[in-house]
Structure formats: structure tokens, C-alpha cells
Amino acid sequence: MISAENLSKKFGRKEVLKDINFCIQKGETVGVVGPNGAGKSTLLKIIATIMRGTNGSVQIDEMDTKKDTKKIREKIGYVPQEIAVYHELTARENLRFFAKLAKNSPEENWVRRCEEWKLAEHLDKKVKHLSGGNQRKLNILIALLHDPEILILDEPTVGIDISAKQEIVNDLRQLGSEGKTILYSSHDAQELETLCTSFLILKEGELLFYGSKQKVRQFGSVAQSKNFAETLGEIVG
Ligand SMILES: Nc1ncnc2c1ncn2[C@@H]1O[C@H](COP(=O)(O)OP(=O)(O)OP(=O)(O)O)[C@@H](O)[C@H]1O
């Protein structure tokens, strides 16, 4: 369970998260949605213990992100917006390097995952020669090396083609069906609808909505929106 209580974040005098409260249940796949600058990346970084909130708290399985940082990091895989791998090394060399840092990550486990994710045939290519989609997959597979219970992804499909996006969304759905809790920030309504079971919508640092996909659809019927993308747009305003 991931819960935020009266969470706020200021950069200098600018408040970019304002009194946020929510409670995400284990196994949910949560779409984190909002216009540019709404505070999505900031919120994800605070949950991932990369950044600290200014006031309030975030608890993960009753542990506090400020106090129990080390234990929480064992539970979390974080995929940053930027591709954070060594481009001059091969995909396999990257995975071996990060697997050593992750410690308990046997090679056969991540090789099997690479096979499932159709990356196995590219493992011996330098990252700079991989397609954008395969670089993005590698970025995610590295975050999964320590087999975290929670996966946090910040716009992981930006700038890649539609078929690579669909593959990544399908791979993440599979992880969701295995019971992982997933937080997923994106501007792509179609992939959000396919992947997510609930939504957390931010605007100018405020939490506008947190609820199930069903509740988003109900909002759509009230607002007479035609489809899911329009409904999300209506809520964000
Ligand atoms: N390190 C920082 N110092 C100062 N201001 C920051 C910092 N990081 C983010 N901000 C500001 O905080 C606000 C929220 O940024 P954030 O990156 O969380 O938004 P976002 O919803 O992820 O946007 P996008 O969809 O464009 O990625 C923005 O106004 C941004 O300029």
C-alpha cells in the first residue's frame, strides 16, 4: 500500500505539490496524469525516495519514505524519464553491471525476462545501436533487476514508435497481472486506458481526482464525453 498524507513540495517559494492525499492498494496499476508541469515527476520521485517532500508524508507498507529509505528502495524499481544506461556498453554488459549493484539478481532470471520481452537477440549490441524502443525496454528491465514489488515509470514510452509502445504496454500488463503495483506517468490516453486500473490526476500541484477506471468512465457519462481520452481531458479541464 502506498499512501500520501498532506504531502506538499516547494521549490523555493513555488509550491508544486499541494496537500496531496491518496491511498494506492497493492496490485493496482495507476496512471499518473496531468498537464505539463502538474507535478507528476515530482510526485513519482518523492514516492521513489529520490526527492523529499517539504511537508506531510508518504508511507509504503507502513514505512516512511524519509525514515525507512533503504528498506523502501528494496521494494521499488524506478524508471526515469531519461534513458539512464551506458550507451557505449552492450545491453548485456549494462544488465550485468546493474545486476551486480542489485546483488540478488541471477543472470538466468534477467535473461529469461529479456527473452519474454523480445530483447534477447539484441543483448550483445551496444546500446547506441539499439532502437529507441529497445533502449526503453532495457531502461525498464534494469529497474526490475532486484524484482521490486512496486514499479514506478516516468513517461517510459516517449519518442518511440507505436509497435514498440504496444509491446511495452503489454509487457507491463503482464507484470501487473503478476501482482506488481505499477505507477505510470504518460500523456498517451490510449496506452493509459489499456494499461491502468486506476488514475491519479494532478493539475498545478493539486490532486484533482483519484479513483478507478470505472469512476473515470462514469465521469465521462455525466460529462457526456465520447471516449476515454476526452473524459480525461474533461477532468483535467
Ligand atoms: N528541481 C527543481 N527546481 C525548481 N523547480 C522545479 C524542479 N523540478 C521541477 N520543478 C518545477 O515543478 C513543477 C512540476 O514539475 P514536474 O516535472 O513534476 O511536472 P510534470 O507534471 O512531470 O511535467 P511534464 O509532464 O512536463 O514532465 C514545474 O513547474 C517545474 O518547473
From TrEMBL:
The positions making up the signal sequence are none
SMART domains membership: AAA (SM00382)
The record, for SUPFAM superfamilies, names: P-loop containing nucleoside triphosphate hydrolases (SSF52540)
Q: Where is the ABC transporter domain?
A: 2-229
Q: Is Lipid metabolism set as a keyword in this record?
A: no
Which InterPro entries does this entry report, sorted A to Z? AAA+_ATPase, ABC_transporter-like_ATP-bd, ABC_transporter-like_CS, ABC_Transporter_VariousFunc, P-loop_NTPase
Print the keywords alphabetically: ATP-binding, Nucleotide-binding, Transport
- Species: Fictibacillus arsenicus
Record lineage: Bacteria, Bacillati, Bacillota, Bacilli, Bacillales
Cite the Pfam families for this sequence. ABC_tran (PF00005)
The terms under GO molecular function for this entry are: ATP binding; ATP hydrolysis activity
Family matches, as PANTHER family:
ABC TRANSPORTER ATP-BINDING PROTEIN ALBC-RELATED (PTHR42939)
What is the protein name for this chain? ABC transporter domain-containing protein
